[in-house]
Specification:
Layout lengths: L1 E6 L3 H12 L5 E3 L13 E2 L9 E2 H14 L3 E3 L3 E6 L5 E5 L4 E9 L3 E3 L7 H4 L4 E2 L2 H4 L8 E4 L3 H10 L6 E4 L9 H9 L3 E4 L2 E8 L5 E8 L5 E5 L2 E4 L3 E3 L29 E3 L11 H21 L4
Parallel strand pairs: 1-2, 1-8, 2-5, 8-19, 10-17, 11-12, 11-17, 12-13
Antiparallel strand pairs: 3-4, 6-7, 7-8, 9-18, 14-15, 15-16
The chain binds NADP nicotinamide-adenine-dinucleotide phosphate (NAP).
Length: 310
Amino acid sequence: MENVIIIGTGCAGYTAAIYTGRANLNPLILSGNQPGGQLTTTTEVENFPGFPQGIMGPELMMNMQQQSEKFSARIEYTNVTSMAKAAAGHFEITSEDGTVRQARAVIVATGASPKHLGLPNEKSLIGHGLTSCATCDGAFYRNVPVCVIGGGDSACEEAGFLTKFASTVYLIHRRDTLRASKIMADRALANPKIKPVWNSTVVEYLTDEKGEVRAVTLENLMTGERSELELKCVFVAIGHVPNAQFLGDLVDRDENGYIIQTKGTLTKTEGIFAAGDVADHVYRQAITAAGQGCSAALDAERYLTSIGVR
Ligand code: NAP
């Protein structure tokens, strides 16, 4: 039986591991299907305090992993599929390979995954000219036109990064103003390689004879007019869905699926704590996720003391 299992290896998960490790709780971390979390798919992080020159997202996550291991955190690379509360009060966490692990307390730091538009052939085009990760796939599209769908910070960041490779980056947004923070929006709009396509949405992905994306059909939401835009890759950056489905009724969720915390990082089930993007639809920053990871670790430590573990 583990004292505490932390599910997720983003900023929240690793911070929770550093704190519970340092409190001698010997935490076990279960990685999830994207070890290192969302920052491993980004480039430079300019706003994480302590790095005046910025730091690359993957490097920041490697640092956090090493720091948690320094305090004896153990990492297992697996994806959790379900969780249940046993009659004795502990939790049983089942992974996709069928392994069941037991823990007295659980910190859920599973983050959120990229959303898609929901168009019919969308899922089958992932890896064939459709992606949500510019850092991973941008370099494959040199000197060709690509597009980014979305108007938030992610869309602007991805678009800026893609200008290193692509000939033109169309920024397709459903309104005529960006949601992104002013600095990111200004930077994107000042980049001559980024061409905004306002008030528009993609209604169809068109493919070539090899099944690779060759164009999109755009719909202008003001006029209803449709047009074809030729490009080689679509980067979808329209936000995220929280990864909380595996918890069933153990937690309450809001209408968008984010875990509802009752007090601090507590959830409706004693012994389950939630931290980071899986429970935060408002701030969603690396630093706020890390902060919540710290809070969840302290809450879990108090809970374990209250049930006589220490
Ligand atoms: P977001 O802020 O939720 O923006 C999502 C964008 O996608 C919005 O512009 C939205 O349009 C659009 N959208 C949503 N659903 C759509 C649909 N079905 N069809 C077309 N467009 C759709 O998500 P995000 O950009 O991923 O950012 C998430 C959080 O991470 C934010 O808090 C952000 O500040 C943060 N972040 C920070 C940085 C940084 O500081 N370096 C980088 C990336 C992300 P509307 O605007 O019309 O709603």
